[in-house]
Amino acid sequence: MATSYWLPTVNMLTSLVELHLPSCRLPMLPLTLPSINFTSLLVLDLSKNKFTSTIPPWLFNLTELEMLDLTDNNLTGKLLDSLGYLKSLRYLDLSYNSFQDSIPKSIGNLTSLEEFDLAWNQMSGIILESLGELSSLTDLTTVALNNARISDTIPDWFLQLDLQLDYLDISYNQLSGTLLSLKILSLRSNSFTGSTPLQLCGLSALHILDFPHNNLFGNIPHCIGNLSSLKSEFTNNDTEVYGHEGRLEVVSKGRVLEYDSILYLVNSIDLSDNNLSGEMPVGITSLIKLGTLNLSMNHLTGNIPANMGNLGLVEILDLSMNKLLGSIPQSMVSATFLNHLNLSYNNLSWKIATGNQFQTFVDPSIYEGNASLSGCLLPIGCQDNKEAPQIPSGDGGEDDDSKLEKLQFIISMVIGFWGVFGTFAVKRF
């Protein structure tokens, strides 16, 4: 009954090219996907409503569709083989629904497909083998499968797929197997094992490397400094290179932030909570475009690279819970954008660096767990330092010249006193 208020009118528009009804949620809108009869439609956007049905058969008659957006509904059931009839699709967004089971192999018929988003569904069980059909789609640039409850092993075809994609997000699943490399790669919170692949170093456009909460072991590749997109200053040309890359959740300062239209501005390496060992590669200090570097909760040893201050744009630096040795490089005071620092629970020693941003890092938890570390945390005092802080000249302290003048004054007073007293004593005798 509800559909009678609006669909007959819509279906009379036989030449309609685009239909956008996102976030309607009007009383006249039915809870099931309405029947749309015209086949000239190029764009259909029914996102952010409350549809609860399965995908109806009539949808597969819209063979001219180039964009289909059904995101953020309550759609259920399987994705039917009929999906392959929509051969003109370039953009397919089915995220934030309750689709189940696998993906039909007919998806390989969508030869024009550029972006495919199935995030936040319930695709439990084996799914990736059927997705192998995507490897033949040469125009495909974006695949989002994060939070889709996928439990599977990464198949061999993924090694081919990553050469075509600009963006892949399969984070927050139960994936296992060996690793692959990509320009933008998020494999957060899975069960990947093995070492970080050297192939990553050859990805000239990589600007987000997101591998936390896995079981990676071995050294961080020394060639990580070859990531050319993180070695140059940001320019306006970057907006043309990257453009819109999809949506990605990035953990920053313990908070989960979602980026979409400004994703190309995010420059991050997060390898935290793995089993990485060895020293921090010196080449990492050449990645001057980095905004976030998180290597916490690993087994890294050796010194913090002396030139860490080269990371002049880094805002978040977390090296906590490792086995790092030596002093905090004084060069780090040059990182004037730094606003979140954590060096706790290492084996650092000597004094805390001073100057610039370090004057604002007064929270002792930043440095706790380093038994041999000492230095001034606050402008008015020092922690674990037996020597009182020196007060610089001009702020009430005394330099060598003032001390010499005072000594000369005291000597002259003594000589004058004995001169007068001595003369008086001689006359008396």
What would your notes on this structure say?
This protein has helices at 7-11, 158-161, 237-242, 400-428, and strands at residues 18-20, 43-45, 67-69, 76-77, 91-93, 98-99, 115-117, 142-144, 167-169, 184-186, 193-194, 208-210, 215-219, 248-252, 255-259, 268-270, 275-279, 292-294, 299-301, 316-318, 325-326, 340-342, 347-351, 372-378, 381-383. A hairpin with a 2-residue loop joins strand 24 and strand 25 (381-383). It is of the alpha/beta class. The strands form five sheets. The chain has a 13-stranded parallel beta sheet with strand order 1-2-3-5-7-8-9-10-12-16-18-20-22, with no helix packed on it. It has one domain (39-383): Ribonuclease Inhibitor (Leucine-rich repeat, LRR (right-handed beta-alpha superhelix), Alpha-Beta Horseshoe). Residues 1-13, 378-405 and 420-429 have low confidence and may be disordered. The radius of gyration is 32 Å and the shape is elongated. It is built from four helices and 25 strands.
List keywords for this structure.
single chain, 429 residues, alpha/beta, Leucine-rich repeat, LRR (right-handed beta-alpha superhelix), 13-stranded parallel β-sheet, four-stranded parallel β-sheet, 4 helices, 10% helix, elongated, disordered N terminus, disordered C terminus
In a nutshell, what does this entry contain?
This protein is α/β, with parallel strands linked by helices and 429 residues long. It contains four helices and 25 strands. It has a single domain, classed as Leucine-rich repeat, LRR (right-handed beta-alpha superhelix).
